[in-house]
Design brief:
Blueprint lengths: L3 H6 L1 H16 L1 E2 L9 H7 L10 E2 L2 E2 L5 H18 L8 E4 L5 H12 L5 E5 L15 H5 L1 E5 L10 H11 L3 E4 L10 H11 L2 E5 L4 H5 L12 E5 L10 E6 L3 H12 L5 H13 L3 H23 L3 E2 L8 E5 L7 H10 L2 E2 L1 E3 L13 E5 L1 H5 L4 H16 L4 H16 L8
Parallel strand pairs: 1-13, 5-6, 5-7, 7-8, 8-9
Antiparallel strand pairs: 2-3, 4-10, 9-10, 11-12, 12-15, 14-15
The protein binds pyridoxal-5'-phosphate.
Family: Belongs to the SHMT family.
Keywords: Amino-acid biosynthesis, Cytoplasm, Methyltransferase, One-carbon metabolism, Pyridoxal phosphate, Transferase
InterPro entries: PyrdxlP-dep_Trfase, PyrdxlP-dep_Trfase_major, PyrdxlP-dep_Trfase_small, Ser_HO-MeTrfase, Ser_HO-MeTrfase-like, Ser_HO-MeTrfase_PLP_BS, SHMT-like_dom
């Protein structure tokens, strides 16, 4: 990308962008929710579509001058359906592409389909769920009565029996499936069966795995789920934003909740970039990318295990790995800092049944999507696992850390980031 005007008009922000370019180019990005968008997505986000106000929905707007925006939004809706919903079921599905991000999308679903105080089920944050799945500090946990579920103690996978037992007891109006720090396949069919048994609406939040679902390497919640939310910027590799897909009978409640219930004017430049991303995700090389994410995770998990790391649930089926560092003597926060210092970016994370606090938890969370986008394969992830081990082991040896820093940079710069020279 060229930033000639920013350079002239605002040298301070220009300097920050250039410094961030350098960080992104020279570092190994292992945060599983991050990715690199294509140049086409970047261009669309930077387009003049940002100049328009278009409160409302296609052909039903409050202001004039909407002929192009209406075309764009309808195209984005159609492409989202084509990407996710099997052809024969599309007539039953509706898409709202306006949510500003994943959190407002989830809140809009709760707001649109429930009354304040209604009973809801979602996954606990410290066992892999998202804040908007009922955490007490979040709007979701404050406005609704949440009953949270988690994973089994023995194998750290989703405890479907316990979920069914809770559901039968509390009779929730809505059950949220999906997670933000869970390394295994999620069985949406099981969630749907449980929801059906107790007469609850099933919301599948596929924010993390949308790219894997689109690329057909994770079971899809379509077409049987009631509502599906997803961010568009994680494995799906689009602009920062989200969409809500739902059975048609919920369409007007969802639309009203997003606007005028929760949001104002849609971000047309971002929504157009979502359309670009949906089109990119239907190309053959996207399915290859999705398959490679999973292959890379498996190779990464295998090597980490070989090196003595303790993986939550013993491995990974998707794009994400959780390491329990309890037995290594290095807590998550310290590990994050050591690895950050040598150029490997990841995040500290709680592990199931963590005895430490979320500010200094026992684990770290890492993932393969961003570096897969840069073209890295199994071989590189084996090397990254070894570099991680060296950095953590040599944390008190400045010479060793310098060596690892150099090796990290040498590896990273061989794989270009779209938009960075
Ligand atoms: C990331 C995420 C969200 C929230 O998305 P934001 O865009 O950060 O608001 C919601 N649900 C899940 C499962 C997520 O992983």
């Amino acid at each position: 990308m060229q930033y000639q005007n920013i350079k002239k008009i605002d040298p301070q922000i220009y300097k920050i962008i250039k410094a961030e370019e350098k960080r992104q180019k020279e570092g190994l990005e292992l945060i599983p929710s991050e990715n690199y968008t294509s140049l086409a997505v970047l261009e669309t986000m930077g387009s003049i579509l940002t100049n328009k106000y278009s409160e409302g929905y296609p052909r039903k707007r409050y202001y004039g001058g909407q002929e192009n925006i209406d075309d764009m939004e309808e195209l984005a809706q159609k492409r989202a359906l084509d990407l996710f919903v099997p052809k024969r079921s599309q007539k039953n599905w509706y898409v709202n592409i306006q949510p500003y991000s994943g959190s407002p999308a989830n809140i809009a679903v709760l707001f649109g389909l429930l009354k304040f105080g209604d009973r809801v089920m979602g996954m606990k944050l410290d066992q892999g769920g998202h804040l908007t799945h009922g955490h007490p500090v979040n709007f979701s946990g404050r406005a609704y009565k949440f009953f949270q579920y988690g994973v089994r103690k023995d194998n750290q996978t989703v405890d479907y029996d316990a979920i069914e037992a809770i559901a039968k007891k509390v009779k929730p109006k809505l059950i949220i499936s999906g997670a933000t720090a869970y390394p295994r396949i999620i069985d949406f069919k099981k969630f749907q069966a449980i929801a059906k048994k107790v007469g609850a609406i099933h919301l599948a939040d596929i924010s993390h795995i949308a790219g894997l679902v689109a690329g057909d390497v994770h079971p899809s919640p379509f077409p049987f789920t009631d509502v599906v939310t997803t961010t568009t910027h994680k494995t799906l590799r689009g602009p920062r934003g989200a969409i809500i897909m739902c059975q048609k009978k919920y369409a007007s409640q969802i639309d009203k909740a997003v606007f005028p219930g929760l949001q104002g004017g849609p971000h047309d430049h971002i929504n157009a970039a979502k359309a670009v991303c949906f089109s990119e995700a239907q190309k053959a090389n996207f399915a290859k990318y999705a398959a490679q994410i999973v292959k890379n995770s498996r190779a990464f998990a295998r090597e980490l295990t070989k090196l003595g790391f303790d993986l939550v649930s013993g491995g990974s089926d998707n794009h994400l790995i959780l390491i329990d560092l309890t037995n290594s003597g290095i807590p998550g926060k310290e590990a994050q800092q050591i690895l950050d210092d040598v150029g490997m970016t990841l995040n500290k994370n709680t592990v199931p049944f963590d005895k430490r606090s979320p500010f200094d938890p026992s684990g770290i969370r890492l993932g393969t999507p961003a570096l897969t986008t840069r073209g890295m394969k199994e071989k590189e992830f084996v090397l990254i696992a070894q570099l991680m081990k060296r950095a953590l082991k040599g944390r008190n040896d400045q010479n060793e850390l310098k060596k690892v820093t150099r090796l990290v940079k040498n590896l990273a710069v061989k794989f270009p980031v779209p938009g960075i020279k």
